Amino acid sequence: MKQKDHLDSDDFMQKMKRTVALREDCGIFFEQELPRPAGELFYAIEDQKLVRKDEKPACGYIQIVSKAEFAQQYGMLDESGLLLYHYEENSIDNIDVFEDHVVGTFVVPMKGSVLESKVSVGFYVTESRILLLDETSMLYNVLERMTKRQKIRDLDISHVFVRILDCMISDDMLLLQKYSMVLDQMEDYLEENVSDLPHNFTSFIMQNKKELRALMVYYRSLNYMVDELAESDIFDGIVERRLQSFDNKATKLYAETASLHEAAQQLRDVYQAKIDIRQNKVMSILTIVTTIFMPLTLIVGWYGMNVKMPEVGWPYSYPIIILASIAVTIIEILIFKKKKWF
């Protein structure tokens, strides 16, 4: 017999994280999450490869900084105050394109807890450098992954920025497949017996819908970001094509998430319909029982009156009343069966 306790909404996220091997503080998928080292983090491109540097390169570098470090080191840059303002909001995506630089933020939902945790990432991109604002170890892990997976020829700063964006969604389809597996399993259970489902099934479905809706907003905001980045002059034709590829991936993820959101709504509708059918059957049975006993109630009420009936003194009146009650009951049952009421 199948066990249904894993559908309890209270432990759903824990089981999801175990299924996809995620950490609560991880925004994207890593084979092994590395702790962020202390001190300044610099990356540069050498021999068409991204490498980590111990010191700040003269030009063409990527740097990960905290909010305080950015304010102290780069507070005099154009629009640095605007970047810090949106970064501190930590709730919405924003991007501003200028003649020789791009500044913005995007909010990454933690894939282990989509609704509970988000990480805000800020960026200041020019033709020669990328400044990344991140208080966590997420971007450090992204860049470390990139140093181990060198896939792009003619790598430059703008390529690195697009690769960072691409890493944000590189394994998201796996997460959506897990949602799909859970919804498929719930659909199978619905086809068996609705009474075996957990009592909090509706809240479980609503939790899924909220998580999927949050992911839909995330993917749509990435589409908006790409549209804005395409207007910048700091990206060449090759990078623009990679941006378009990234935009296509985000669009497909949005479409898949929207489909799962609709499937979750359909499951809720089916569940509610089954509950209504079950309640209707119960009410139908109660109505039939009430109807069967209504003539008997009439007889009981009739002979329960404090009035002397003519047949009271007849010795066969009692068994005749019993037989009449049984006959009325049998006739009613036969009529109900003929009408297919049960």
From TrEMBL:
Its main location: membrane. InterPro entries: CorA_cytoplasmic_dom, CorA_TM1_TM2, MgTranspt_CorA/ZnTranspt_ZntB. The chain crosses the membrane at residues 282-304, 316-336. The keyword Iron does not apply. It is a multi-pass membrane protein. Coiled coil: none annotated. It catalyses: Mg(2+)(in) = Mg(2+)(out). This is Magnesium transporter.
